[in-house]
Amino acid sequence: MFSLEMLLPYDFSPLTVIFFVTVLGLYVTALKLMPSEDRPGPLRIFTFLLGLGICYAVMQTVFDYYSQYMFFVHRGQHLILHHLGPFLMALANPLPILRFWNRQIPDRARPFLAPFGGVYRTLQQPFIAAFLFVGLIYFWLWPSIHFDAMLSRDLYWVMNWSMLLDGMLFWWLIFDPRSPARSDAVGYGKRMLMLALVALPQMFLGAWIVFNRGMVYDVYEVCGRAWPMAPETDQLIGGVITWVPPAMMSIIAILIVLRRVMHEDSKKTGKRDWKPQEAHQ
Amino acid sequence: MRSTASAHWQLAAARVTVAFLLLLLAGCFSDDEQWNAKDISSLMPDLQFDLIRSNGKAVEAQDLSGEVRLVFFGFTHCPDVCPTTMVQLKQAIEQMPDKLQEEVRIVFVSVDPKRDTPEQLASYESFFGDRVIALTGSEPQLRELAKRYRTTFGYGTPDEDGNYDVSHSSAVYVFDQQGRARLLIRDGLPTTAIRDDLTSLATRSRS
């Protein structure tokens, strides 16, 4: 069943390949050149590469073919691009790598990078970030927009890229390893609130797809499915994928952030004037 | 510690974001309702193919330019969808004003080259009248064309008589005389609606 051809892209996108190769190259180069005390351990390296790898796999292998012609596979593709892949990459804490490359930027170039910093900080305001995160899911799943996106090659690529980039921004905001007490990273409470807030509309949308009696996404009818499958089944599985795993990932992320709060609390390293621990119990 | 420069950029970035969102919104709701079928003008590439005709000769999209072309993927052994669609398209064309009928061509692309030999295609062509041209090609050629128009096809497992089902797109892709993608006719569109669209398309790009 398996052939090497499956690893080749269905719709080859040079830009996508260049992006992934560049990220991989920058990551590995930084690992080699950085002082060993900054270097992440093997588990973190593995997690990062796994996250990067699955994002590449759903965009540039046979997986992409099935994503174009099966609704539920498409939902799986977005689950990886917008949730799981970036989740793993951010959890792997690539901050030392980012800092390493930040140090390499010559001072003369910095003024030219300022606009990017501005855009980045705007997108990373908690409200905007959460709104964008859910908004993009709703936008691309709006039936008429979804129809167009699956018909137009350009729109399709814009869709997948916007999901990947937004996923990276959002999960990086959530798993920012810097302590809010000592940097301008978003506070842990806000992070948990964001996670809970983005889960609800996703569950609502997923449930709406699952319990919808009519065909919401008929573009897969028009374009032919990759293999014969009842349209209702396809839509049902797709709805469940939109509904359950993202909600679970929000919960897992809340637990991870909570663990970090407790960890920092017990170390009492924050500059803030923490109340004695009894207050929390 | 934020400098005024970075605050300035932040404001600029916020403005760009808002402008972008407004643009998106404008794009979504400015649907003009002049077609009955789905308008795909800005979504799909121009007509391009390299296939084989029922007489065994190679045909390219340019060979048919100057006509409104209705491209339909199917196979001649198709029990229901294909004949129904073909009959409906034929009727829609016959209901058009006489002069305009000659400007429209149904391009039937068989995605089942194994069974659809040139002879088989020739009889299919003659069965559905002179506005039909039936084409096929090698599987890679057909895959290429299907991919270009964001569709796919697949083969079911053959029964004991060697008959098998073929999954394919149920839509008809409409291209104008210049080969630009214009409309997508979906299942369930009434024949009169198709006739109206084709008539205005044939008239429009004529002038």
Assigned CATH superfamily of the largest domain in chain B: Glutaredoxin
SSE run of chain B: HEEEEHHEHEHEEEEH
Quaternary status:
heterodimer
Major β-sheet profile of chain A: none
Shape of chain A: globular
Instruction: Evaluate the radius of gyration of chain B.
Output: 22 Å
**Parts with pLDDT < 50 across at least 5 consecutive residues of chain B:** none
Average pLDDT across residues of chain A? 91
Describe this entry's structure for a reader:
The complex is a heterodimer of chains A (281) and B (207). Chain A is built from 12 helices and no strands. The termini of chain A are far apart. Chain A has one domain. Chain A has helices spanning 14-33, 42-60, 62-69, 71-91, 95-104, 110-123, 126-141, 143-151, 153-175, 188-211, 219-222, 231-267. The model of chain A is unreliable at 273-281 (pLDDT under 50). Chain A is 73% helix and 0% strand. Chain A has 281 residues and is an all-alpha fold. Chain B is of the alpha+beta class. Chain B folds into 2 domains: 1-30; 38-204, Glutaredoxin, CATH 3.40.30.10. Chain B has 6 helices and 10 strands; from the N terminus they run αββββααβαβαββββα. In chain B, the strands form 2 sheets. Chain B has an 8-stranded mixed beta sheet with strand order 1-10-9-4-5-6-2-3. In chain B, strands 7-8 form a two-stranded antiparallel sheet. In chain B, a hairpin with a 5-residue loop joins β9 and β10 (181-185). Chain B is globular. The termini of chain B are far apart. Chain A binds chain B through residues 10-11, 65, 68-69, 114-115, 117-119, 121-123, 128, 139, 142, 144-145, 147-148, 150-153, 155-156, 218, 221-228, and chain B through 5-6, 8-14, 16-17, 24, 28, 31, 38, 40, 42-45, 73, 147, 150-154, 156, 165, 167-171, 184, 186-187.
